Automatic annotation (TrEMBL):
<feature type="coiled-coil region">
    <location>
        <begin position="652"/>
        <end position="735"/>
    </location>
</feature>
<dbReference type="GO" id="GO:0005524">
    <property type="term" value="F:ATP binding"/>
</dbReference>
<dbReference type="GO" id="GO:0005694">
    <property type="term" value="C:chromosome"/>
</dbReference>
<dbReference type="InterPro" id="IPR010935">
    <property type="entry name" value="SMC_hinge"/>
</dbReference>
<dbReference type="InterPro" id="IPR003395">
    <property type="entry name" value="RecF/RecN/SMC_N"/>
</dbReference>
<feature type="compositionally biased region" description="Polar residues">
    <location>
        <begin position="91"/>
        <end position="108"/>
    </location>
</feature>
<feature type="coiled-coil region">
    <location>
        <begin position="219"/>
        <end position="246"/>
    </location>
</feature>
<dbReference type="InterPro" id="IPR036277">
    <property type="entry name" value="SMC_hinge_sf"/>
</dbReference>
<feature type="domain" description="SMC hinge">
    <location>
        <begin position="328"/>
        <end position="444"/>
    </location>
</feature>
<protein>
    <submittedName>
        <fullName>Structural maintenance of chromosome 3 (Chondroitin sulfate proteoglycan 6)</fullName>
    </submittedName>
</protein>
<feature type="compositionally biased region" description="Basic and acidic residues">
    <location>
        <begin position="109"/>
        <end position="128"/>
    </location>
</feature>
<dbReference type="InterPro" id="IPR027417">
    <property type="entry name" value="P-loop_NTPase"/>
</dbReference>
<feature type="coiled-coil region">
    <location>
        <begin position="511"/>
        <end position="617"/>
    </location>
</feature>
<dbReference type="GO" id="GO:0051276">
    <property type="term" value="P:chromosome organization"/>
</dbReference>
<feature type="region of interest" description="Disordered">
    <location>
        <begin position="862"/>
        <end position="884"/>
    </location>
</feature>
<dbReference type="Pfam" id="PF02463">
    <property type="entry name" value="SMC_N"/>
</dbReference>
<feature type="compositionally biased region" description="Basic and acidic residues">
    <location>
        <begin position="862"/>
        <end position="883"/>
    </location>
</feature>
Length: 1040
């Protein structure tokens, strides 16, 4: 300050001369200001022009880059479309090949069905012709049968008349023969008496009666048989009627069954067509799912390629662990849980970075479960960051509002579920999306929020600005959006595929049921037709049986009539003989009897002749009737039945139904072939369309590539122009800055200085400047900065005085703070020392039973006794407070009565003291774990045991548990260890393996034996060497 006062006095003397100089200098600076202002105005104008050109060029570059980017994006889309078209074309070629094979197969089926139909129609045509011929033949045969039956009926009537005539003649002949025989017998009988005659008559009567009785029995038997035959005939006729009705019923059931069978076949065909459609849809969906799956795998590989290997492995392992163990409360990676406008993807990725792959879970327990499983993985588990929602804050943020729509909180532009809001807020809560870098810089400076532009340029609150080029081809958010879209499409396709599969299962069941019903109906139809045929056969058998029975009954009727006639003849004979009983015996015939006998002889002859004629005529009639009957039963009736069956079969329409079925099959084959042909045509058209589309896409791709190259070349040309403009702008800006600097160097000017020289041209200003400069040369010896120095030094003096006052005030505050801190430090030291000393005494007595130890604080006496009487406001210096304590002294006794210092202790005792101090500090300020390297190497066995117990006790301490990792070669610590590792060395490779306590103790025992043997061997070597030295050093006596 004193120096400044002296300098100010000197400068005051130079101010008068300086005033004149300042007047000229002010004029010079005014002129220079006018010149510089003109140059600055011209430079700024040029800068504005260049800035305008640069803005236009930058805009053009941006447009070219945007168009090139759009072209590149379109190229990727077209390349993807080309890949899709190629896959579709490949799939379509395979489908077309399969469809052609199917069409060929259907063509063969159609041809076979047409040929079968033609054969059947030819067969039906032939059968129709045969049926017409059969009907005509049957009609003629029926007429012939009617004529033959009429003729047979007439023959039977004539035969009956002839049989009646024969019977009549036989009866007359029998009566005549009987009378003739009687007369002959009477004429030739020579009875001696009447009684002898009566006896002979009675014998004849008895013979006649016996014959009549025999014929009566035969007649009774024949009548009984006829009654039985009549009953059988009646039953047969009833059975024939029932059989005919059953055959009619069965025949009537066949058309209904055939119609039902036709309906079921039609339904089965409809269901089969629907199933074929579903099969095609299923195949198309399988192909689509495979294509989506490939695309999804590609996008997932792209996403996984955007992160490092460890994070990728971590994501895969966590997903596998969660799926295998069914862990609840896991939401997934953050990138899968959020979405936003594609325009914000770059900003979101820049804001979050790799935190997009943080795993969001509900609580710490879920996170611990996942990490526990990951630790158990044998292979590399990877790296993962887990965000428990329960531990994250969800406090609402207060965002700046003064920037309006130019700065928007990123959190408000991200869509997510409310349950994961803490996780999203943790990462995006302090980020603002800004319109441009200028706004981002303002937001970062004026608030505690990081700012990011849509282009990915970031301004942190700490000041750094990061950004640059971002390749959108490797965008994580774009890849995740595509993955979500593909997953949604894949899920929909799989759902459709599942629906089709379920519908196919239902269709298969329905088709199976329909086919089962069809088989049942076919069996019923076959059974009905077989029953109808069986009933018709039974009907024919019953008709034949009835006809045979009628013939048998007719024969039996004739036999009964013959028997009845013979019986009546015998009865008449017996009656005549009975009339002769009691008549008188005559030796010769009377005249009447002679005449009667003569008449009987001639009559018998005539009757025999007539009988022979009648029998001949009867035989001829019987032969003719038999021939007609044989013709009817053996030829005409079987032929009629055969023709009738043929006509009935044709009328039943069995072959027609078969032909109709073949027609339907042929129609189905034709329809299937047409449908297959249409599908084939559609596939060919689709393949042609895909090929055309592929060619068009390739042309479009080439065009876009050429357009992209042209745009990139245009952008590069614009960038070269922009660089040239930027270089020119830099030069002009440097020139502007230089002019502005020169203007600033001119200092302050009066308000009218610029107005005086404003309108003058530059040439005149240069002349004026030259004249003023010549005038200023007269004042070259003047201290040009006297006034400024005077003012500056005056301001400096005021500043120094102000700073002196401030420093004096600060010194007092600092000394008060130092004193307060010294007091707190001393209190903390004493408090800590007391705790450590207390634990030291307790632990030493545990480690060395019977011993005692203590810590003693060493203090220094103050160098100036008067300082003790100074009050607190005297602010003792820091060095004085630091000299209050000089150190800590250890005093221990190991049960021998004398207290020893550290310098008096052995190595093992010093180790015990060090361990005691460590354990004492651990109890005051616990640590989670301790690493000891052979702390028991210098200890005796008893102290190793106490140290081991102390470690075991400390591990199990409920208040301050700790973990100890110890290396040792002694069994005491091994006995109390929970897990033991053995370190081995082989072939320059060290291995660490978990071993059991018994193996460790056995190893230590063997090591102890080896060490003992080594020590003994060393002792023997030392003794031998000492003896050898004694021998070599002793005088030798030689006996010569």
């Amino acid at each position: 300050v004193d120096q400044l006062d002296e300098k100010l006095a000197e400068l005051d003397a130079e101010r008068e001369e300086l005033h004149k100089y300042q007047q000229l200098d002010k004029q010079r600076r005014g002129i220079e200001y006018a010149l510089h202002d003109k140059e600055l105005t011209e430079t700024r104008k040029k800068l504005e022009e260049i800035e305008t050109k640069r803005a236009e060029a930058s805009k053009s570059v941006g447009q070219c880059q945007d168009e090139a980017k759009e072209a590149e994006e379109r190229i990727r889309e077209i390349q993807e479309e080309i890949r899709t078209v190629k896959a579709s074309l490949k799939e379509g070629s395979s489908s077309l090949s399969n469809q052609k094979a199917k069409t060929q197969q259907l063509l063969e089926s159609k041809t076979k069905a047409s040929m079968d139909l033609k054969d059947a129609e030819d067969r039906i045509k032939s059968e129709t012709t045969s049926r017409s011929a059969a009907e005509q033949e049957l009609q003629g045969l029926q007429t012939e049968i009617e004529h033959k039956e009429a003729e047979l009926k007439e023959l039977k009537a004539q035969l009956a008349q002839k049989e009646s005539l024969e019977q009549k003649l036989e009866n007359e002949l029998s009566e005549c023969n009987s009378r003739q025989q009687f007369l002959f017998g009477k004429q030739g009988q020579n009875f001696s008496s009447k009684s002898e005659k009566d006896k002979w008559v009675k014998a004849k009567i008895s013979e006649a009666q016996q014959a009549a009785k025999k014929d009566s029995k035969v007649l009774m038997r024949i009548n009984a048989e006829m009654e039985q035959v009549n009953r059988q005939l009646q039953d047969a006729e009833e059975e024939m009627l029932r059989t005919s009705a059953s055959a009619s019923d069965q025949s009537a059931e066949v058309p209904a069954l055939e119609q039902q069978l036709k309906d079921f076949k039609s339904k089965a065909g409809t269901l089969n067509n629907r199933r074929k459609e579903l099969w095609r849809d299923e195949t198309a969906l399988d192909s689509k799912c495979a294509q989506l799956r490939d695309e999804l795998d590609k996008k997932e590989r792209q996403l996984h390629g955007a992160v490092n290997f460890d994070t990728n492995m971590g994501l895969k392992n966590v997903k596998r662990i969660v799926d295998e163990n069914k862990i609840a409360g896991v939401h997934g990676p953050l990138i899968e849980l959020i979405q936003c406008d594609p325009k914000l993807h770059r900003a979101v990725e820049v804001a979050a970075g790799n935190r997009l792959f943080n795993y969001v879970v509900d609580s710490e327990e879920v996170a611990a479960t996942i990490l526990k499983h990951m630790k158990g993985l044998k292979n590399k588990s990877g790296r993962i960051t887990i965000m428990p929602l329960a531990n994250l804050s969800s406090q609402e943020m207060r965002y700046p509002t003064e920037f309006g729509k130019d700065a928007i909180p990123m959190l408000k532009k991200i869509e997510f579920d409310a349950t994961i809001k803490p996780a999203v807020q943790q990462i995006f809560g302090k980020v603002m999306i800004c319109r441009d870098l200028e706004v981002a810089s303002q937001v970062a400076r004026s608030s505690q929020f990081d700012s990011i532009t849509l282009d990915g340029d970031r301004v942190d609150t700490r000041g750094p600005i990061t950004g640059g080029y971002h390749d959108d081809r490797y965008s994580k958010m774009d890849a995740m959006k595509a993955i979500k879209g593909l997953i949604e499409q894949l899920g929909k396709s799989r759902a459709d595929r599942q629906n089709i599969a379920e519908e196919l299962v239902a269709l298969d069941q329905e088709i199976t049921q329909c086919l089962s019903n069809q088989k049942q109906l076919e069996a019923r139809l076959q059974h009905a037709r077989a029953n109808a045929d069986t009933w018709r056969a039974d009907e024919r058998a019953h008709k034949k049986f009835v006809s045979n029975q009628k013939k048998q009954l007719e024969t039996m009727s004739k036999e009964a009539a013959d028997c009845q006639r013979r019986m009546e003849e015998q009865e008449a004979r017996a009656a005549k003989l009975q009339a002769e009983l009691g008549e008188e015996l005559q030796s010769h015939l009377s005249a009447e009897e002679e005449a009667e006998l003569t008449d009987l002889n001639s009559r018998v002859l005539r009757l025999k002749e007539r009988l022979v004629q009648a029998q001949g005529a009867k035989a001829q009639s019987e032969l003719a009737a038999q021939e007609l009957d044989d013709l009817l039963t053996g030829n005409l009736h079987p032929r009629q039945q055969e023709l009738q069956e043929l006509v009935d079969k044709a009328a039943a329409g069995t072959d027609q139904r078969a032909v109709q079925q073949l027609r339907e099959e042929a129609a189905e084959a034709e329809s299937a072939f047409k449908e297959a042909k249409e599908i084939e045509g559609g596939l060919e058209a689709e393949a042609a369309e895909l090929k055309q589309k592929s060619q068009e896409l390739k042309k479009e791709l080439e065009r876009l590539k050429a357009s992209k190259e042209s745009l990139e070349e245009g952008a590069r040309e614009q960038e070269r122009q922009l660089d040239s403009l930027l270089s020119r702008r830099t030069q002009l800006a440097q020139r502007r800055d230089d002019v502005s600097k020169r203007i600033r160097e001119l200092g302050s000017l009066p308000a009218d200085a610029f107005e005086v020289y404003k309108g003058k041209p530059a040439k005149e200003l240069h002349k004026l400047l030259k004249k003023v400069s010549e005038d200023l040369k007269q004042f070259s010896h003047v201290n040009k900065k006297a006034l400024e120095q005077y003012v500056t030094f005056t301001e400096q003096r005021e500043d120094l005085l102000k700073r002196q006052r401030e420093l004096q005030n600060a010194e007092g505050k600092i000394k008060e703070l130092v004193y307060a801190l010294d007091v707190r430090k001393d209190e903390a030291i004493e408090r800590t020392f007391k705790g450590v000393a207390k634990h030291f005494r307790e632990i030493f007595s545990e480690l060395a039973p019977g011993g005692r130890g203590e810590l003693v604080m060493q203090k220094r006496l103050p160098s100036d006794a008067n300082r003790e009487n100074e009050p607190p406001h005297s602010h003792r210096e820091e060095t004085e407070s630091q000299e209050k304590y000089s150190g800590v002294k250890v005093r221990v006794s190991f049960g021998m009565g004398d207290v020893q210092t550290m310098q008096q202790l052995s190595g093992g005792q010093k180790t015990m003291v060090a361990l005691t101090l460590i354990f004492a500090i651990q109890r005051c300020d616990p640590a989670p774990f301790y690493l000891f390297d052979e702390i028991d190497a210098a200890l005796d066995s008893q102290y190793r045991t106490t140290v081991a117990r102390m470690l075991e006790k400390q591990v199990e301490d409920g208040r301050n548990p700790a973990q100890f990792i110890v290396t040792t070669f002694h069994p005491q610590l091994v006995q109390v260890s929970e897990k033991i590792y053995g370190v081995s060395h082989s072939n320059r490779i060290s291995r660490v393996d978990v071993i059991t306590r018994d193996d460790a103790l056995a190893f230590l025992a063997s090591e102890e034996v080896q060490r003992t043997a080594a020590r003994q061997e060393e002792a023997l070597v030392e003794q031998f060497e000492e003896g050898e030295e004694a021998f070599l050093g002793a005088p030798m006596e030689v006996d010569t």
